[in-house]
Specification:
Layout: E1 3-4, E2 7-8, H1 10-21, H2 25-53, H3 57-63, E3 64-67, E4 77-80, E5 84-86, E6 91-94, E7 98-102, E8 110-114, E9 116-117, E10 139-141, E11 148-150, E12 152-156, H4 157-162, H5 164-189
Antiparallel strand pairs: 1-2, 3-4, 5-12, 6-7, 7-8, 9-10, 10-11
Length: 190
């Protein structure tokens, strides 16, 4: 019996007898099919999540880890850990009144954050931090002139991954591709 994202798929049950008839080759065939379908789903999740949260695909790929299937454990898992992402990783620009950051569709595209900065100097001729102390992060004043706090975006990749369009994309790709891959791999062996 196959379990896809918490529910049993009746279409996949028809492959159970064919896989059982393969004997020792059954888990190997299922492993190849699961890994191929999982890799395709991961690619779609990365694409969708990048658009959804406004981060580059390179950053999303680094944050989403894969636990691939093997012959003994026929499961494919996408995992991500971490908390609130720093505004440093988003597309941002500085205005006279603060920073405007692009936070993706899930947050309503651009967001203005007043009284913040990520460069040094007086406004018209601001320059990138030459000493490297700011590191591209967005800061706001927490009190006096030298009391600064690093600001975060409110985007948490693990939560965004299991909700919304990325979760739907994963389910759709697995439901479409996994039966096709199983059929293909069984046909190769038989």
């Amino acid at each position: 019996m196959f379990n896809v994202n918490g529910y049993e798929d009746r279409e996949l049950q028809r492959f159970a007898n064919r896989l059982g008839a393969l004997g020792k080759e059954g888990p190997k065939v299922a492993n190849r099919a699961i890994n191929r379908a999982g890799d395709m789903a991961r690619a779609q999740v990365v694409r969708t999540l990048a658009v959804e949260v406004g981060l580059p695909q390179k950053t999303i790929r680094a944050a989403v880890h894969t636990r691939r299937s093997d012959w003994d454990h026929l499961s494919y898992t996408l995992e991500s850990v971490g908390g609130d992402v720093s505004l440093r990783y988003f597309k941002k620009r500085e205005t006279r009144d603060g920073v405007v950051a692009y936070l993706g569709r899930s947050r309503g595209n651009e967001e203005f954050i007043g009284n913040t900065f990520f460069r040094g100097g007086a406004f018209p001729g601001r320059r990138v931090d030459l000493t490297g102390t700011l590191g591209g992060h967005v800061y706001g004043r927490a009190g006096g002139r030298t009391e600064l706090e690093r600001l975060r975006s409110g985007v948490v990749i693990p939560l965004e991954m299991v909700e919304g369009a990325s979760a739907v994309a994963f389910d759709e790709v697995v439901a479409k591709v996994l039966p096709q891959r199983l059929d293909h791999e069984i046909g190769r062996v038989l």
